[in-house]
Amino acid sequence: MDTFLEVLLKIWDYFATNILTQPAYMIGFIVLIGYILERKPFYESLAGFLKATIGYMILMVGSSGLVGAFRPILTGLKDRFNLTATVIDPYFGQNAVTDGLEKTFGRSFGDVMVLLLIAFVFNILLVRFQKYTKLRAVFTTGNVQVQQSATAFWILLFCFPKLGRIEVLLVMGVILGLYWAVGSNMTVKVTQDLTDGGGFAIAHQQMFGIALVSWLADKMHKHDTKSGKKAKRLEDIQLPGFLKIFNENMVATAILMLFFFGIIMLVLGQSYFHDLYISSKGVSGLAPGGSFFFYILTTSLSFAVNLAILQLGVRTFVGELSESFTGISDTILPGAVPGIDVAATFAFGEPNAVTIGFLFGALGQFLTIGALILFHSPTIIIAGFIPLFFDNAVFGVFANKRAGAKAAMILPFLSGIIQVVGAAFISSWIGLSKFGGYLGMFDWDTVWPGFTVIMKFLGYAGIGVVALILILIPQLEYRQDPKHYFLVVEDYEKYKEAKKIIVKLLK
């Protein structure tokens, strides 16, 4: 029996290491399974696997390029001003958990992968029984699952430090699996609207945030409509005179990033980037004798380059994923959609909304960080590029689509404030701030601090309350529109026609 379990664990370890936590291969694997279930010829299934995997790898090149180029700039502020600070970034957060688990709780990080397995299997079961659960999305973004499993593991140990190993894994496996299923399910309708039936949901770190921003944007749109105002989307705004250059997305992105990052890089100074070059062994930073001006220019322009690469990757794999997932939804998981990386939305919205969302989110974050320093907060937050960009840029895309340019500025700005305040509170309270990092994405600055308060103060009853909240959310969503709730996934064109008829009747 023990030998059988060891074999199963080795198989799981191999699958988790090489496929589940590697999003490119996970997406490719899903496409391959989907086409096989559709009984496509093997060569077509193989071609689909390769195209989807390569497409996701292209997306990761763009995403990694963005993070790799700009993370050292933002974290450099910590070194430049000698701040004892917490960096809000998923990888800093994961490292903080890794460093702190043994020291604080005497636990092993290896349990995090077991937790991931339990949560992932539970997510699939919830979707399989969607007739009762009303859940329609499977979380497939493996690298995000690892980061969230680590932070969730820490949170539960903070709330229940005496809980046994098996109990911790089972309890948090259920709660995290519910969060993945419920959160990605909340993005189904708004993502279908954004992508015109793209056939996927968002499985990332700001799923509740996307639902909230979309709801607030709809409220803003209704208010403008009642007031007789016509909300202008960013794509509808044509700037006059010399400002016309900002009508071109790549030009606008390049100029705005040159201004934004140029100022930060000048504040950090040329010597910082020389030191960075030496410490990174030439991987990043400014080589001795290099032009500081052209280094700033190249770094800033790389934002537009990597964004274009990211969008190319999305266009390459999304079509394959949507088509092949039909095989899975027709057989194994009826009425389901895959939840994928939030970056996939950037190829569908107005490109300038990405830049505007990022910039206004950054403004909100930096103003709030300044306030923390001014009021001598016990925890100072350093902006991490991933929350700064991947949260706020996507909020800009959804807000612009639903309510126009004003919403694309206001809502990411508010998000920036919330990210810093929420991260400062939760990272200090649960003790991760002393290890230098916290996950820091929108849901983990809002929803998860709320869950932590409930579990810490209500004890074991709090676990039931959190689970009940998550179980009720899809039921309430379903009750709002039971007739079309599943149709939005099963046949988006028919869904659109049905909604048009309803709008005509209301008029």
**Main β-sheet, spatial strand arrangement:** 5-1-6
Give the quaternary arrangement of the chains: single chain
Shape descriptor reads globular
Category by helix and strand content: mainly alpha
Q: Averaging pLDDT over every residue, what do you get? A: 89
Helical segment count: 20
Termini, distance in Å? 67 Å
How much helical structure, as a percent, in the residues? over 70%
Q: List low-confidence stretches.
A: none
Using DSSP, what is the number of strands?
6
Beta strand %: under 5%
- Helix and strand pattern: HHHEHHHEHHHEHHHHEHEHHEHHHH
Radius of gyration over all CA atoms, rounded: 23 Å
Biggest pleated sheet = 3 strands, parallel
Structure commentary:
By secondary structure, the chain is mainly alpha-helical. 74% of the residues lie in helices and 4% in strands. The strands form two sheets. Strands 5-1-6 form a three-stranded parallel sheet, with helices on both faces. The chain has a three-stranded parallel sheet with strand order 2-4-3, sandwiched between helices.
Brief overview:
The chain is 74% helix and 4% strand.
Q: Which features would summarize this protein structure in a list?
A:
globular; mainly alpha; 507 residues
SSE inventory with pairings:
Layout: H1 2-20, H2 23-37, H3 42-80, E1 85-88, H4 90-105, H5 110-128, H6 130-133, E2 137-139, H7 142-159, H8 165-186, H9 188-195, E3 201-202, H10 207-226, H11 249-268, H12 270-279, H13 292-331, E4 337-340, H14 351-374, E5 380-383, H15 385-403, H16 405-430, E6 437-438, H17 442-458, H18 460-480, H19 487-490, H20 492-506
